[in-house]
Amino acid sequence: MKVKAGLAMASSVMPISASCRSRFGIVSPAQRPIISSSPRLVRALARSFLIRTSSSFAPLSADRRIREFGQPKLSSSFLDKCNLATRSSSLRINRPSWRGQQGSLRLITCNLAVELPSAQSVDAYDAGQIQVLEGLDPVRKRPGMYIGSTGPKGLHHLVWEVLDNSIDEVQAGFATKIDVELHADGSVSVRDDGRGIPTGVHPTTGKSAVETVLTVLHAGGKFGGDSSGYSVSGGLHGVGISVVNALSENLQVTVWRNGLVYEQTYKRGKPVTELTSKPLPEREKSKSGTCVKFLPDTEVFTTGIEFDYSIIAGRLRELAFLNSEVTISLTQLTDKKEKVKSNEYHFAGGLSEYVLWLNQDKERLHEPISIRRERDGITVDVALQWCSDSYTDTILGYANSIRTADGGTHLDGMKAAVTRTLNTLGRKSKIIKEKDENLSGDHAREGLTCVVAVKVPNPEFEGQTKTRLGNLEVRRIVDQAVQELVTEYLECHPDVLETILAKAIQAFKAAMAAKKARELVRRKNVLKSAMLPGKLSDCSCTDPRNSEIFIVEGDSAGGSAKQGRDRRFQAILPLRGKILNIERKDDAVIYKNREIQDLIIALGLGVKGEEFNLDNVRYHKIIILTDADVDGAHIRTLLLTFLFRYQRQLFEAGCVYVGVPPLYKVERGKQAHYCFDEKELKAVMKTFPSNAAVNIQRFKGLGEMMPLQLWETTLDPTRRMLKQLTVEDAAEVNQRFTVLMGDKVEPRKELIRSSANRLSVENLDV
Asked: Same domain for 547 and 500?
């Protein structure tokens, strides 16, 4: 092959062994051979044409030729299903043609046209091609860098950014009331009674301070120091409100300050009006505060701008627990400004009340104990309580009212203090004998519910999303505060100490009893056979990023799924009925259960409590696929309980999905439509004449569907419907699983009663 700019022609002849000849068909020069996918042939061709293959084959069909991972696909049925790339990233293969030798077909020839970059195209890369994004352009260009995503999570993040500004006013002692309204047009308004954004001209920008914080990245009053507007704040980078402005179709800001009301309007980050002001009525001269109303931009949030009332309500309740001095209201309005629903949150008890709310459906061993400590400008609030009927801990951490989902030094300090204090008091009281080992942290914290909230003047968060606190000085202060709190309380309440230690020692013994089962899980981390008791039918792909597993209900559905799947990247694991409810069981029982063992081994979940490593998970898409009836819903809930309690990080990594099979098949003549809900069914029926002969089939079980039907509606990645499950509010989810799957019946009945208005009698499966 001649290598120079322009087009280069390459031709290669490869001998075909007798065992491979059946792969080819007789072709004329005007035809392409029909060649099926064979990894052996792919590797041989790859060596012949200086092409490398990846370790797995991309699931591509002939009518869906795409460029995956930037790798070119040779346009033949042989290579359409194989993931190929040139060894040189500067080469681009196009116009392949195939010719097979007539007769015995011992040789196959492939002619390729290879396009090489010219020297001119390389030289064309100059200073003029360097882009400089100014103002809020970087936000609109790469919104995910600032809000995480442009899906529902990123959409709600806009509300959190505005809300955090109001909470900062609360923490500074200048606000006591926050009102959040969800409007019918999709807009949201957040109003507080704080000091109001300053309105004077900023000396650096020459604009008003309002316009500066709304249009200039890294502008705000939260950078610390003597000139800062806040001693404690969740904002570090000064980008929150300006990001909301950039990603909003329109934004209106209203400021009440110094006896005046100021207003300004923006469109996609650009001011469309000047900052105007007018005097307040005499009776409102003392009024102060800020109101920000914004409508998210559908050009950015292409999947929709519908806010979830329950998600916002959960965050507001959380903030009200963390800031006992504030009252927060949430209202959903119609287009006529009428209330659809509303809630108001105020918790004078603070974190102690938060812990009581988390444990409302558990057997509590004692009343919540709490402490507030301030040292070196850092404020620490801790509340904790042990429960006798819980086998896991519930620990929530906050820094400047920001939820630290990945923990940090404040939680490290708390955990160390609890473990050390219980061991010290246990040996002092002779409950833990001299010959006995110390309790580990996991055993000491079994059944513990704890909330740790710190206020730090200069917090060190990891990234803009602030999921982990890094200040080393915080650990020492929290450690000392918790040790003092727990020691003082338990020394005064020896009966509580004895109960907690008895529970911890029992947990230690249960762990020892489960050790053999755990070792079994470790030994089987690599499956040697697809014929497991769980009847796993594995896929041929070994890359977990490109692999997915369907956990299906029963052998009947499993049989259809196995026949209908694409075995290259789809695995099937049928279950034998309902799995164990691990909400009510300790580790020893969990590890001895065969169905649970099959799930742990098949998914590659490792051992509960050990550090989570996504690379060890065998499939990065775990899809729960159950029947559309009460039993199916129950099995789905049991599986979600298992995944949440056993390896919660799967949800945080975005690995858990629920498959949505169709409910109806509508046939009219040779036409067939699959409908996923009643609304879609009615829409399809409206397209037919009123006197049309229509056959409607209601699917209740996956086993009722033929393999081809299951593939077309539920398994095919191009046509199926999946719901990805993530955890927005860990406290809410934890409490909901306790109610649904715990021992107490009354809270479950109350939940059913309160949720009854969401159901339609026609949809009940009776």
From this structure: no
The last residue of one of the domains, among 120, 146, 169, is 120
Q: Could you report the per-residue pLDDT of 25-81, keeping only the tens digit for each?
A: 333 333 333 333 444 444 444 444 433 333 333 333 333 333 333 333 333 333 333
Q: Which domain holds residue 560?
A: 520-661+724-746
Position 530 confidence tier, pLDDT thresholds 50, 70, 90: very low
The residue with tokens 């369907």 is 550
Interval 113-136 mean pLDDT: 56
| pLDDT average, residue stretch 320-327 | 95
| Domain end marker among 513, 540, 563 | 513
More confident residue, 473 or 744: 473
Structure tokens at 696: 């409607």
401 vs 378: CA distance, rounded Å:
13
- The number of distinct structural domains making up the chain is 4
Q: Rounded distance, CA 163 to CA 326, Å? A: 13
What confidence score (pLDDT) does residue 119 get? 47
Do 581 and 546 share a structural domain?
A: yes
Q: Do 315 and 367 share a structural domain?
A: no
Evaluate whether residue 446 is within a structural domain: yes
What angle in degrees, to the nearest 10, is found between the helix axes of 630-646 and 594-603? Answer: 60
pLDDT of residue 513: 67
CB-based contact 612:649 (threshold 8 Å): yes
Long-range contact pairs involving 278-284 (C-beta distance under 8 Å, separation at least 24): 280/256, 284/256
Shared-domain flag, residues 397 and 471: yes
Q: State pLDDT tens for residues 127-158.
A: 666 666 666 767 777 887 888 788 888 899 99
Exposed e or buried b per residue across 738-751, where buried means at least 16 C-beta atoms within 10 angstroms of its C-beta: bbbbbeeeebbeee
pTM of the model: 0.64
Phi-psi region of 361 (alpha: psi -120 to 50; beta: other; left: phi over 0): alpha
Q: With contact defined as beta carbons under 8 Å apart, do 586 and 509 qualify?
A: no
* Amino acid residing at 420: R
Query: Is the per-residue pLDDT at 190 higher than 70?
Result: yes
Residue 246 has pLDDT above 60, yes or no: yes
Q: Is residue 260 part of a domain?
A: yes
Question: For 620, what's the count of Cα atoms within 13 Å in the CB-facing half-sphere?
Answer: 12
- Pairing outcome for strands 656-659 and 722-724: antiparallel
**Which regions of 636-681 does DSSP assign to beta strands (E)?**
656-659, 664-668, 671-675
Residue 713 DSSP symbol: I
Q: What is the CATH number of the domain that holds 494?
A: 3.30.230.10
Q: Are 583 and 554 in contact (CB under 8 A)?
A: no
Cα distance between residue 643 and residue 612, in whole Å: 13
In angstroms, the CA 606 to CA 618 distance is 11
The upper half-sphere exposure of residue 491, i.e. CA atoms within 13 Å in the direction of its Cβ, equals: 11
More confident residue, 587 or 617: 617
> What integer is the mean pLDDT of 475-487?
94
Same domain, 361 and 504: yes
Contact 575, 553 (CB under 8 A): yes
Q: Domain for residue 550, yes or no?
A: yes
Given this model, what pLDDT does residue 487 score?
Answer: 94
| Residue 63, pLDDT score | 34
Active site residues: 553, 627, 629, 631
Provide the CATH number for the domain around residue 148: 3.30.565.10
Tokens representing 420? 């050390």
CA dist 463 and 460 (Å) reads: 9
Average pLDDT, the chain: 78
Q: How many CB atoms lie within 10 A of CB 246?
A: 27
**CA-based R_g, the chain, Å:** 31
